[in-house]
Amino acid sequence: MEASPWDNTALVIRRALISVSEKSGIVELARELASLGIEIISTGGTSRILRDAGLSVTPVSNLTGFPEILDGRVKTLHPNIHAGLLAMMDNPRHREELEQHGIRPIDLVVVNLYPFEATVAGPDVQLEEAIENIDIGGPAMVRAAAKNYRHTAVVVNPRRYEEITQELKQSGGSIGAETRFDLACEAFAHTAHYDAVISRYLELRKTSGALPAILMLTEQRHLSLRYGENPHQEGAFHTSSHPLFEKIHGRELSYNNVLDLDAASSLSGEFDQPAVVIVKHNNPCGVAIGTDLSQAFAKALATDPKSAFGGIVAVNRPVDRDAAGAMNELFLELIAAPDFSDDALVMLRKKKDRRLIRLRWEAKRGPYEIRSAMGGYLVQTIDRHALSQVDLKVVTARKPTDDELQAMFFAWRVAKHVKSNAIVYAAGDRTLGIGAGQMSRVDSARIAAQKAEEAGLDLKGCAVASDAFFPFADGLLEAVRVGATAVIQPGGSIRDAGVIRAADDHGIAMVFTGIRHFRH
Fold first, then answer.
1. Residue ranges making up the domain that contains 469
2. Alpha-carbon distance 432 to 330, whole Å?
3. Residues 26, 73: one domain?
4. Would you say residue 3 lies in a domain?
5. From CA 222, how far away is CA 236, in angstroms rounded?
6. What CATH number is associated with residue 301?
7. Are strands 332-337 and 311-315 parallel, antiparallel or unpaired?
8. Residue 393 and residue 335 share a domain
9. Distances (CA, A) of 94 to 80, 98, 143, 154
10. SS3 label, residue 475
């Protein structure tokens, strides 16, 4: 049986080195340490703040015999610091060497690092500024103390100051072995995340390659979810310190809620006009634009009101009272918006289980998306392709009308977010029928038409979008049969000529985009 990672020995704290970038709570912590008779060693700005607060501080330069040099790039990189952090005090030779060189052990290190992540999150940050916010001495001290957790305690998280203070007071000035091990785990996670953020930032500035050569995932757990895809599975949401959403009302989120939220908010962001997206099981079941959200919601709901029950709604405008009133008539698990008016919140919060999410549109989505597969990870750049009219190639004898073009573009935007095989019937401002996730494209076309019929929607004169080429004419002919007059698809099949002939035979306008939008 593997031995415990700690023994039961408490470490008496006599000397503490404090050097922090995030200074909240540090004066209060230092006061508590001083009240317990603990000597405080510090550097630069931290030292000045502590001295200004009336605390006695030993400058690091007293230990190293060197001033801080190179604009502060070198402060703590010295044997008198690192030997004090790394010495194993139950090793007689280590104790002898410390005594020989006049070095005293450092029992506690309180360090957090230069704010690299916050710096590079700024809109206009330059590479030179980012480089100067790469901490060197801090991670070296953190890693040294964490490696030597049996003999040195390390604190990197200001949220733990109160906990550490309480333990010191209750134990008469010592920190237990289990706490030190826990702090060491947190410290290594802290430096790993720090290095991963730096690596990711620099990698994106290379002149070649859109994907990382080494994939590093160090995202923090932001939410513990109600469960995973099913209640017997555990689930959590991990992200950086800048999540794209904030829950402002309702019960905790589930794994599926977050997946649906991502699908719905991504699609709603495709439109400039007020837009409403209703999602069920990671596929849109109704999408529309309008002069305002209440009008757009009514049109989106009309696509498939049966599937919308219990669905998730995302919009690209703040929800006002009228929109809230329309949405309040239907059971919806979640409503996501950039914001909500006060009277909309009063109305929507009456249903305690409904989740309300504020979307942070200003936050940046990552450059690529990641999925686990076959014991590894699949990585790809995000599908951000935006279609313009110059991308279209009319391949039929008849050109599309302006109204048909508008409907094509609407259908195409939606099809990009529908699971393959995807078929979308649409007018210029709304979906009319959506077929998703079928093994056969013609089956998707039939299901989308069936959905429209059940909702009482007329497909005559609509446009149809296919996320990939029609391998045979049967899918196109199914769309023609139910009334579609315009088709938008990538093209590229070896049977394109036959599909074009079928379109011409029925007077259909068809355009090729040259772009495929599979979603698996």
1. 389-512
2. 20
3. yes
4. no
5. 8
6. 3.40.140.20
7. parallel
8. no
9. 13, 6, 19, 20
10. helix
Cα–Cα dist 191/116, whole Å: 12
What single DSSP character describes residue 430?
B
Structural domain contains residue 139? yes
pLDDT at position 363:
60
Q: What is the dihedral of CA 126, 131, 133, 137, to 10 degrees?
A: 180
Q: For residue 393, give the amino acid letter.
A: K
> Which residue spans within 350-506 are E strands per DSSP?
355-359, 368-373, 376-381, 393-394, 423-426, 431-435, 463-466, 486-489
Please check whether residue 414 lies inside any domain of the structure: yes
To the query of whether residue 281 is one of the catalytic residues in this protein, the response is yes
Tell whether 146 and 268 lie within a shared domain.
no
Domain boundary among 359, 375, 398: 359
> In this prediction, what percent of the chain has a pLDDT beyond 90?
60
Number of structural domains (the chain) is 3
**Active-site residue, 147 included:** yes
Is 288 buried (19+), middle (13-18) or exposed (0-12) by CB count in 10 A? buried
Catalytic residue among 147, 222, 249, 351: 147
Q: For residue 457, give both structure tokens.
A: 């929607």
Q: Is 176 exposed, middle or buried (0-12, 13-18, 19+ CB in 10 A)?
A: middle
Q: How far from chain centre, in Å, is Cα 462?
A: 37
For residue 111, the cross-strand partners are: 19
- Residue 428, both tokens: 């210029």
Active-site residue (options: 23, 94, 281, 506):
281
- Give pLDDT tens digits for 28-43: 999 999 999 999 988 8
Whether residues 124 and 246 fall in one domain: no
User: pLDDT band at 362, cuts 50/70/90?
Assistant: low
User: Tens of pLDDT along 337-348?
Assistant: 999 999 999 999
